[in-house]
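ugh finaly. both done.
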Amino acid sequence: MQKPAEMTIEELTELISEIEALQEKKVIDLARRLRPGLTLEDIKNPHDFPELTDPDWHYADGILTGIQTVKMALLSKIRERS
């Protein structure tokens, strides 16, 4: 039985960054459907935009936050090892 190929830390970091970019696009696209013209900077302050009280937007934004948390934890571990 063959052992599955292991990912390098760099490959894992790149994969997480790709997933983060995809989710960020989902979040901004949904925000712009709710209120056209919003920017990435705008959605960092969702309380300024009543349209962003939408539960689907909050769910997508929460997923993005989770991905970013995993990325930061991984980068922290990488720095600890250096």
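ok and the 2nd:
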Amino acid sequence: MSAVLDDPANSWIALTVPVWYDEHDRAVEVASGTTVWYHAGMPTVPLHWVLSRDPLKQFESQALLCTDQEATPSFILECFVQRWQVEYF
């Protein structure tokens, strides 16, 4: 993922996440793709990955993985943020 993050040829897509911790309508940039997870002796699992970065440089870039190949990068980010909202309260 760090190679993708540092690749100047990578196409980043601007997204607005409706709820971002204590903020609303947070702008982020994402790149996404597919890969497979493999562990010896286990079946191969297809993964949808999403890299997110902050154009304002207020949070570190992060990689998220999802087994739902139909999930959009926006949906994956929103689920991630909502998860932390529930754990925070």
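summary for the 2nd one i guess: The beta strands are 13-20, 23-37, 45-53, 62-66.
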